[in-house]
Give the backbone structure.
Amino acid sequence: MSAPVSAGAVWRRVLPVWLGLMALLALSCAAAYAPLGPWNVAVSFGIAATQALLVALLFMRLDSASALIRLTAACGLFWSAILFSLSLADVLSRLTRT
């Protein structure tokens, strides 16, 4: 059993991350309406990746997790990459037929 953690310690860890996520959300909303041209998708993906990294490292505590838990998270990301690439291949194959 681990030692109990005070509420103040939890808030000192969670509040800056939450504020960062809210700032990235505001940036994402601003980027949706900004005329970035072809860079719009890249900026949106960069913001989303940063948000996912903050959640994974600090809310899921992967920064202090064991190697097995980190490996499990990496396998989940790898599987998601496979699914996204197969979906993209399907969409691109349908575009070339028309």
